[in-house]
Amino acid sequence: MININAISKRYSHADAPVLNNLSLTVSDGNSVSIRGASGSGKSTLLSLIAGFESPDSGSITIGSQTLPFSSEKNADIFRRRELGVIFQSYNLIECLNVWDNIAFTCRLKGNSDDSYQLHIMALLGITHLKNKPAHQLSGGEQQRVAISRALVHKPTLVLADEPTGNLDEDTSDTVSDALYSLCRSLDTTLVVVTHSEDVARMATQQCWLRHGQLHSEPA
Amino acid sequence: MINRLRLVLITLLKLARFKPWEPVLIIIALLIATGGVSSVWLINEGARQGDIASQTPSVFANAHITAAHDDIPLTRNDYVSLRRAGFTEWIALSEDTRPLTCADDSGVGKQVDGLDIIGADTQVAQSWLVTSERYSASEATTGIVAFASPSTAARYACPGGIIRKTGHTIASVRAVNGLPDDVLVVPINAFYTGQVTPKTHPLTALLAIENIDPERQQAVKAVLPEHLQLEQASTTLSKGNLSESFRLNLWAMGVLMAVVALFIVLNAMLLMYRSRLSVAVRLRQMGVSARLLQAALLAELAVYCLISTPIGVIAGLYLTRQLTPVLQQTFSALFDSAFISPAPFLVQTISGALLITFVALSIFCVITGRQLTRATATASVRFSEWPLKWRIAISAAIVLVTGLLVWLADTTLSALVSVAAVLLGGSALIILWLPHLTRRIRDLVPPRYVLPNYVAASAITLSGKTRLAVCAFFIALSANIGMNVMTDSFRQATESWLSQRLSAPAYLYTEQSYEKVAATLPDAQAVFRGTTSMASRRVTVRSFPGSESARQSLALDAVINNDPEQAWQDFTRGKAVFVNQQFALTFNKKIADTIALDAVYPGDKSRGTPSLASQSYQIAGIYPDYGNPDTQVLLPVSRFAPAEGFSGVVALYDETAASEATLSALGETYDASKLIARSMQTFDRTFVVTDALNISTLLVAGLCFAISVSVLMMDLRPQLSVLRALGVHQWQIKLTLLAQYMVFCLLTALLAVPFGILLAWVFISRVNRYAFYWYYPMDITLSVLMQSVFISLVVVLCVLLLPVGRIKANVDLRQEAAV
Fold first, then answer.
1. Which intervals of the chain form a coiled coil (chain B) (predicted)?
2. Which residues of A lie inside 8 Å of B (Cβ-Cβ)?
3. Contact B287 A104 (CB under 8 A)
4. Whole-angstrom Cα distance, residue B435 to residue B560?
């Protein structure tokens, strides 16, 4: 379960806080979609949930883990075992091929499962790209590899920042179906930041981020 | 843990393969830095050995016994008799002056001397003997080994050996100290071969293998048969040297090069780190711990260091070896000095170079450690400038600490620490203020000048990434300016001091006794020398006349009661003495202090019968005495009566009217102007070496800058692509980039000028003061400053032309912006 309690965050160069007394609760295995205008703080919220940044005030609890982490070591262990992140700009390791990119997290964790990896790749339609270097992929292909990488180690929480932003409509439907169904089958909690109404609707809970706070209704 | 480290390390190595220019540039930087360091160290060593060699008195200049008349030669029996009488310090010499040729028929010289090395019971001769036997044994089939001075050995390096008229071959020539130029020395048994026999080539002389004291000379004179004569050791005019100062300069250049190399290596490492930061952030986001990531980075860098450091050192050694003949000829022909091919102290050099790279790795660890811990988001690792208040406070602290270190320096070590503080303090100020200065430059460029405005704006971003390379350049340039100002001041002080000191029109250097000189030139002003001690430290004593012309020739820095007349009266009456700056600073004495000198012995040794008893004197004046390594006291000539300790130097005022024949019968006469010119030649010859090393350091720093530029240009590609898409021409882009980097260099040069001047002051007033006990007025010449800045900018411009010229800014829509 994710429990976000009254967090605020302000960047030094900004006049107003990007997140202001924001709260959110997501049950285990559920999914939540967050929509909002550009610059409304969606990616910042994901960053705070992942522990990449710390809130100025308030608290975040993920399962039994309270953020900020008690030590860097705990943070690393949490990211390796419990967390999968799909970045807006994919963040693939460009010197590795598709297979190695996806396998990287499992190898870090020490439990590679090639058949499961192949299964996920097949679901996302990227099996044929297995040996292709990451830097030779198109934007859409990179996005699917990034989704595979976030799910392959069976995390308990997946944070997705615009997971279908670079995909055409048909592929977007396929990929988002795969993402949601995989998370459901693994009982993984999913937080999706998106501009796509279709992708957002697939979540069990929908939110809109405005003026630093979450709302259950669009403006 | 090990598996994770392996996984991350493999990823980093794959990244290196994916972007090969990163490791290639690191390796090039390491090669240049370690190659530069080893070259400078080896050239230093060669010059140092050459300096030692040029100062080692020639065994041929020692006292020698020759035939008194041409009709009765010196024979083997004479030699044997003398040695049997216990005079084993004398060894036989014979000469063969017939032409020598290289195996390829080219002529090389024409003198081989046979020396009875076996008969010489000294350490030097025995080491020659061991060398000779070893080489003769190993090269028995091809010929014998000969010895020569370093410059001669370099000239006689004939592949295939040297062939004598006898048909015998000299297989190799070994460089040793203490031999005159243009002479090959072989053991006497090897000398007498074929047609060369004791009959055809009788002994020429018996040489004293060491200095013979007067008592021993009298003893040998007593046993010499009538047909032999003893000739005194030659007191020909010394070449003169600034040896200690020169060695300190060489040492400083070596340390300077090491510091510059450290900055270069660190800069290369940080450039690679920066270009990989985006990957580092990704890995951190996936749960790779900061420690693990750093360990992998260090392991990768250590691999590069371990590969390239020995190669760099060996390349530096190879370069120095290749340059050795040129250096030897340059030293010999141009500077009248020796350069010895340095022995490759490979283990020490590689260890030194590895130490530099591992110090760089350690600093790299400290710099990156904290950043990697929080490198989970790109925003958290962006380099941001410190607030103005902080920068001012830190700058003030740096200035204060540096100022205090300079001010409080009171030993050679603390003076050298203050030199380091000035250089590192300046570098820290550059790191703090370079972005700010570039921002001010952008404010000065009106927006309507689009490209210049872009140059200035982009320079702000780049200033953060090139800081360390700029620091290396700053250190090299400041040191260059500092050394040039110091040397120029020293030169001017020395020249003016010499012009004043050598007031007589000419000087006679003679080996005759004072009595004979005084009889021939009754009014000549001879210089007497003596040796004494104070507080158990050796002090040299010289006579000084009290005549009006002599008074004018002695520039006194300070005199008692500020009254020169009283000072000279006290001096001529023998109540007071003049001491040199070295004496005053070594013993911490001031004007009017009383000093207690021990007994004064005539000549250079403090033994025998003293010519003056222990006595106390008042210090009436302190005079500058640049280049003299000794503490010295001047006493009036009258204190040297009866005349003892005649130095062999006589100032000729009116005596120049004496016939040339009279003067040449006594010795060699030198015009004062020639002596000054000769001294200044010695000066220039000494410091031209450090000048060359200085420019080498500047060149290495420039290359480091070019490497940074090459790396940064990779980051710039997206921007350049945009410029090209907007219609900016290729050559305009190149010019823009060149202008951008020259802006940094110009700013650095402007900062380096005041720091260079400060450095010169520290060198003169602190390092010289505590290392050599003398100082001189600092003379800032605009042309010297301009020359240093101009040369440095030209060096950087030249090395920048390569990477800038190679760049091809093509439009590529798929390029990603660098992190």
1. none
2. 47, 50-53, 72-73, 75-81, 83, 85, 87, 91-96, 104-105, 107-108, 110, 133, 135
3. no
4. 55
- Nearest in space to B331 (alpha carbons), one of B787, B692, B696, B694: B692
- Measured CA to CA, the distance from residue B563 to residue B620 in angstroms comes to 9
* Contacts with A80 from chain B: Cβ below 8 Å: 286-287
Q: Are B358 and B399 in contact (CB under 8 A)?
A: no
Strand residues in A10-128 grouped as ranges (E): 19-26, 31-36, 57-62, 65-67, 83-86
Q: Is residue A50 part of a domain?
A: no
Rounded Cα–Cα distance for residues B670 and B72 (Å) = 35
State how far the Cα of A122 lies from the Cα of A120, in Å rounded to an integer: 5
Residue that wins the pLDDT comparison between B43 and B785: B785
B813 interaction partners in chain A (CB closer than 8 Å): none
Spatial separation of the C-alpha atoms in residues A165 and A172, rounded to whole Å = 8
Q: Chain A to chain B, count of Cβ pairs less than 8 Å apart?
A: 69
Q: Least CB-CB distance to A72: which of B279, B283, B373?
A: B373
Query: Angle B481-B415-B473 (CA atoms, 0-180°, nearest 5)?
Result: 30
Q: Is B817 helix (H, G, I), strand (E, B) or coil?
A: coil
- The Cα B576–Cα B569 span in angstroms is 9
Question: Residue type at B56?
Answer: T
B2 has a chain A CB within 8 A of its CB = no
Q: Which CATH number covers residue A138?
A: 3.40.50.300
Measured between beta carbons, the chain A residues lying within 8 angstroms of B275 are: none
- For B362, the token pair is 């350690």
Nearest Cα of chain B lies from the Cα of A208 at a distance, in angstroms, of 24
For the whole model, what pTM was predicted?
0.64
Give the integer Cα–Cα distance in Å for B161 and B312: 33
* Rounded Cα distance, B652 and B500, in Å: 15
In tens, the pLDDT along B347-380 reads: 888 888 888 888 888 888 888 877 777 777 665 5
What are the backbone angles phi and psi of residue A133, rounded to the nearest 5°? -65, 145
* A25 contacts: CB under 8 Å, gap ≥ 6: A1, A2, A3, A4
A70 domain-assigned: no
Work out the burial of residue B243: count CB atoms within 10 Å of its CB; fewer than 13 is exposed, 13-18 middle, 19 or more buried.
middle
Beta strands in B294-397 (DSSP E): none
Q: What are the angstrom distances between the C-alpha of B788 and each of B360, B466, B478, B484, B494?
A: 28, 22, 9, 8, 22
Q: DSSP readout, A126-162?
A: -GGGTTSBGGGS-HHHHHHHHHHHHHTT--SEEEEES
| Nearest by Cα to B543 from B448, B645, B444 | B645
| 3-state SS, residue B801 | helix
Q: How many CB atoms lie within 10 A of CB B226?
A: 8
Q: What is the pLDDT of residues A71-105, one digit of tens each?
A: 777 888 888 888 888 887 788 887 788 998 898 88
Rounded CA-CA distance B608/B605 in Å is 8
pLDDT digits (tens, 9 = 90+) for B142-189: 567 788 776 677 677 777 777 777 767 777 777 766 677 677 888 787
For B15, which residue in chain A has the nearest alpha carbon? Answer: A95
Residues of chain B contacting residue A73, judged by C-beta atoms under 8 Å apart? 289
**Does the residue A97 lie in any domain?**
yes
Query: CB B159: neighbour CB atoms within 10 A?
Result: 7
355-374 in chain B: CB under 8 A from chain A: 373
Interface test with B, best of A10, A85, A94, A158 (most B CBs within 10 A): A94
Residue A57 in domain: no
Question: CA B259 to CA B697: how far, in whole Å?
Answer: 10
B287 reaches A (C-beta below 8 A): yes
The domain containing residue A120 runs over which residues? 29-38+75-215
